[in-house]
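Reply to dn_fold:

You asked what the input looked like. This is it:
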Amino acid sequence: MNRARTLKLIALKHTIELQAYRREAGRLNDELTRLKNRRTQINDLEVGYREHLALPDLRVPEYRDVMQIIGRLRERRDIDDARRDILSVEQVRLSEILAKKQRQIERLEQEAIEVLRTERYALEERLESLNPARR
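and this is what came back:
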């Protein structure tokens, strides 16, 4: 019974670790969604500023300012794309870890059940051997 209890405790420890990894995966998904939304906003802003460039009678300082803004928007988009790529790699790595942890927990729980069954069978045999033989 002691080994089965130990295996169950180990499985519980791994379950807690799995929950921590799931929280981290949730944060990653939230961050990826946020980056996707920001990219959409940046694209919308860039389209708006490009439309502004098409206005007649645009003065040189306005043109220069709009081009600087568009340049900054491109920089921001490049930074966000690089971050998204890094987070996507991390998301793949985390999904592999989650699958591995889940399999490990299932294996430990199954092993605990088998050990418990084996210990119970050994206890029944021991009790059977202590009973006097019938004549």
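The radius of gyration is 31 Å.
Hope that clears it up.
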